[in-house]
Every structure is written in C-alpha cells, then in structure tokens.
Amino acid sequence: MSRAISLDLGNLSEKNINISFSEISQALKSKSNTKLEIEILGKSHIPTSGESVITDGSFIAIPKNILLQAFIVARLVLFKYVRGCPSDREQSLTDATAIILLVDSEHLTAANTRKRLLKKCIERNQDKAQEFFDSEICWVDGYLTSHLHRHTKSPTLWAHRRWVIEQNKLFVSAEYMMQNLNDVIFIAAQRHPRNYYAWSHARWLQSLNTVIPKDMPELSISKPIILAVQDWCLRNPSDTSGFSFLLYCLMRAPDPEEFALSVFTKTFRTAISYRWSQESIWCFLRTLATWKLRGEENFVCDEDSIADYPLIRNRICTARKWCRIYHLKMPELP
C-alpha cells in the first residue's frame, strides 16, 4: 500500500466514515479462528454501490479510500479510550486497533492496547483463555502473511506475535514448529525477501525455553524441519536470511555428520547444476563445510561441467581457499 494518503473529500461525511469503520471491523473479525488474506485495492478498483469490503471466505479486499475513512474513526476511538475503556466499549477499541494496524503496522500504541485488552479478557474468562490466544494469533498471522505493504516485515507485529506465544506458555514441539514454518514464516519470507524479522522469530521459537512435561523429550531440531527449510532455500537461492536460518538449524542439530553432509551435497549439486552464483548460497556452503564437515574436501565436482562458467569456478576456488584459512579456527558452539 502506498504511503501517500489521498482521500476523496467529496464523499467524506460522518455517516460514511462510520459505515466504513463498522463494515471493515466486521470483516476483520468475521473469521476469528481463520487466518485472513487481506489486500488493499487502489484507485483502479471502482467499488459498486454500497460496497465497502469485498469478502470471499477468508479473503478480504478493501478499497484504500474506504480504509482511510475507517482509520479516521479508529484513531478517534483509540485516543478516546486508550487510558481508560469501559467494558462495553472494549470490542470497539479492539476493532479500532485492528484498523489502525492495518494502515500503520508500526503503530506501537495500538499494538500495546491490544495486549492490555487481551489480558483483560483472559482475566475475566480464564476458561476461554486458549480461545482468545488462538484468535489473536490468527489475527496477527493474517497481517504477517497477507499482500500488504510493510506488514510482513513489521517488527511491531512480530513482537506482538512473540508476546502472545509467551503469554500462552506453549511447549514448542517439532510439529508446532513445522506448522509455524509452513503457515507463517515461509509465507512472510516469500512475501518480503530477506525477511530477517521472520527468520529471527523462527530462531526464537526454536530456542524457546518453556516448562516441558517430564514425559516429553527435550526440544530438538528434527530432520523434517531442516529438510523443509532447505527446500524453501533452494526455491529462493538469493535469500541470505533463509540460508542463515538453515545454517543455524544444522549447527545446533544433534544429528551426525552424515545428515549435514547430505544437506551440503544436495545444495552444492543443485547450485552447480543451475549455475547459481549468489553469495548467499556459497556463503552457506563454505561455512557449513568449514564448521561441521571436512572443509575444502567437500567441494569436489566435475571440473569439465563448469569449464565454461568462470564465475562458478571462481566461487568454488574462493570457497576452498576460505576453508583452508578458517577450517581449524571455527569456535566451538555453546
């Protein structure tokens, strides 16, 4: 969504902006347990008479002018009740924060207000705490994975998601981690390349210290997770943040050297086959070979197949040289 704000003042009235606020609020909370796919429509879309929001299941499209009209009301509601909100106006305040964060993903006051409202709801209804947590996660995941301007890389929204998970005190199992990768991390990273906020969130999930039941094993990074991350990286070879997370997983995995070697071999052969020269993939390969494998010995390939590709030959020579220099100098992992 463009940062430029241009309202059609001819259609701006108290009635219109209140209707816009009401209809957008209703659309955003209509699927409380389903991740929404939101898109902002530009001026090229001409809404039909009486049409403020286009919905199709979990897909929502909102004309930009309508959204900005709703934002006017949302901002008034927020600053009216932010310091003290009667219980009968809490839903309206929650709706206002959703609209404000849809327009401005870095609105910290709106995000913090949602936190306070969520805690109040849970304090009053302890038996529905999990339902409230799930609903909030679905809401923020929709913003983080939709085709929006800056939301997929919003530190405020990622921090909000982290806060909700911390409050929920979830045990992050391998299955839960895989679900988060497929449903949120991979999509957000695809929407915004080199999305270090998304991958940092994934690192945090991996290292989350929770109260683990005695009958459950200690959290470890499973092979399916590593293979899923590798598959994503091979479909996005220029994404250095993705390869950094893959390296992070491999460095902390309790698996034997053979598994790391299989990941290295597949990645190396794919890079050679497609003549990839991106620094991200070669940095990953040389670091993995130096830190966990046998250094330059791993960079063995058919020299004739790359004879006509000087850039690839240069990448391999550089990687071998890098391994010779640093192979015995890499520090031990904590």
TrEMBL record:
<dbReference type="Pfam" id="PF01239">
    <property type="entry name" value="PPTA"/>
</dbReference>
<keyword id="KW-0637">Prenyltransferase</keyword>
<dbReference type="GO" id="GO:0005737">
    <property type="term" value="C:cytoplasm"/>
</dbReference>
<protein>
    <recommendedName>
        <fullName>Protein prenyltransferase alpha subunit repeat-containing protein 1-B</fullName>
    </recommendedName>
</protein>
<keyword id="KW-0677">Repeat</keyword>
<comment type="similarity">
    <text>Belongs to the protein prenyltransferase subunit alpha family.</text>
</comment>
<dbReference type="InterPro" id="IPR002088">
    <property type="entry name" value="Prenyl_trans_a"/>
</dbReference>
<keyword id="KW-0808">Transferase</keyword>
<dbReference type="GO" id="GO:0008318">
    <property type="term" value="F:protein prenyltransferase activity"/>
</dbReference>
